[in-house]
Design goal:
With about 350 residues, the chain is mainly alpha-helical. The protein has a single domain, classed as Up-down Bundle (Rhopdopsin 7-helix transmembrane proteins). About 70% of the residues lie in helices and about 5% in strands. The chain contains twelve helices and four strands; from the N terminus they run H-H-H-H-H-H-H-H-H-E-E-H-H-E-E-H. The chain has a two-stranded antiparallel ribbon. It has a two-stranded antiparallel ribbon with strand order 3-4. Strand 3 and strand 4 form a beta hairpin. This is DUF7703 domain-containing protein. Pfam families: DUF7703 (PF24802). Keywords: Membrane, Transmembrane, Transmembrane helix. InterPro entries: DUF7703.
């Protein structure tokens, strides 16, 4: 009975010429997932500042995986090229999406968890799950026919349920670490602290990720393979967009200059934007003491200038200019010798 219902679900057009609900669902889900994948790729390659870390490449690989995953599922539903090519395309996309999405969470969790033992266990959990279940599903795809895969008690359906459960539990563990560490950091910060909002967003996003995984797990046990593929395609694309939105901010707050901040407490975030440098003021040259002394001596005081001009008036009548020889000669009387001497002395002081 379940087999017949699955065959009916694969009908695309009803006798009256209208598309079935399943056909509409397939087209809508495939379109949404493809749109999200293209948008994510555009955002990743245009807004990412660091392209040499695990976060960037895992997010890019998972976003690229959405394209063959949704395309292969759509080709399989429309029965365009046969069972084998579309299942290969779908399987490649599924492997990139599931493991890539887990690596995205792992790439940022190391900013919150400093224990190398915990990080090593998480890393090997992702590697072992990927190696076991990706290989198992791939082998079953090529060893079991399309009709047998649709049966309720087939090995493919059973393994499909188990691997969906395992990957959901894996995501629960990763999201649980995020919730635990961010809640611990928020308790140490003041409510007015500006980083509290980012951490609250991180908690909210991880709760949404858990709810999406629960929805995927619930659909997997409904024995409706068609609806399961549609919900997976849309669910994984939404999860990647949410992770990209919040984990990028987390990396910007916990990093400075591309390197993790290890010498500061985890609840003390730093700014990424450098402070504007003030323009250097031009340095005015300071004159040397000898130069300043000479300049001061060269500037006679007002009293000296007045006295010199008065003395020059006294001897101006006795001054004789020899224009032929270009020599100025002063002839002084005996009674004016003292005035001339004083005048000369003052003139010498002024010239010095």
């Amino acid at each position: 009975m379940a087999f017949e219902s699955r065959q009916d679900a694969m009908l695309r057009i009803m006798p009256n010429g209208r598309y079935t609900v399943e056909a509409i669902m397939v087209i809508i889900c495939a379109t949404i997932s493809l749109y999200n994948a293209i948008e994510l790729l555009a955002l990743i390659f245009t807004s990412s500042k660091r392209r040499n870390d695990l976060y960037f490449w895992s997010l890019a690989a998972a976003s690229v995986g959405l394209l063959p995953y949704a395309t292969g599922w759509l080709i399989h539903y429309l029965d365009v090229v046969g069972d084998v090519p579309d299942m290969i395309i779908n399987d490649i996309g599924w492997m990139l999406v599931t493991t890539g999405q887990a690596l995205v969470l792992y790439s940022r969790i190391e900013l919150l968890i400093k224990s190398q033992t915990v990080l090593c266990l998480i890393k090997w959990m992702i590697i072992v799950n990927a190696g076991i279940w990706h290989s198992a599903i791939t082998v079953l795809i090529f060893t079991i026919g399309d009709q047998q895969r649709l049966e309720t008690n087939s090995a493919f359906i059973k393994v499909e349920k188990v691997q969906t459960t395992v990957f959901c539990v894996q995501n629960f563990i990763l999201s649980g670490f995020y919730l635990w560490k961010t809640n611990k950091i928020i308790k140490k910060t003041t409510p007015q602290h500006r980083t509290t909002r980012v951490l609250q967003h991180l908690i909210f996003i991880n709760i949404l990720l858990v709810l999406i995984d629960v929805a995927l797990l619930a659909v997997a046990f409904t024995n409706n393979f068609l609806w399961q593929q549609g919900v997976k395609a849309v669910g994984y694309s939404i999860k990647l967009k949410l992770e990209f939105a919040v984990l990028g901010k987390l990396g910007d707050f916990l990093c400075k200059g591309g390197e993790p901040v290890t010498d500061a407490p985890m609840f003390g975030f730093v700014e990424m934007d450098p402070e504007p440098q003030s323009k250097p003021r031009p340095v005015q040259p300071i004159p040397a003491p000898e130069t300043a002394h000479c300049q001061n001596n060269r500037k006679p005081s007002s009293a000296s200038v007045a006295e010199s001009s008065r003395n020059r008036e006294l001897v101006s009548d006795e001054t004789v200019v020899d224009k032929g020889k270009g020599v100025i000669r002063r002839t002084l009387d005996k009674g004016k010798s003292k005035c001339a001497d004083d005048c000369c002395n003052n003139g010498v002081r002024a010239s010095n």
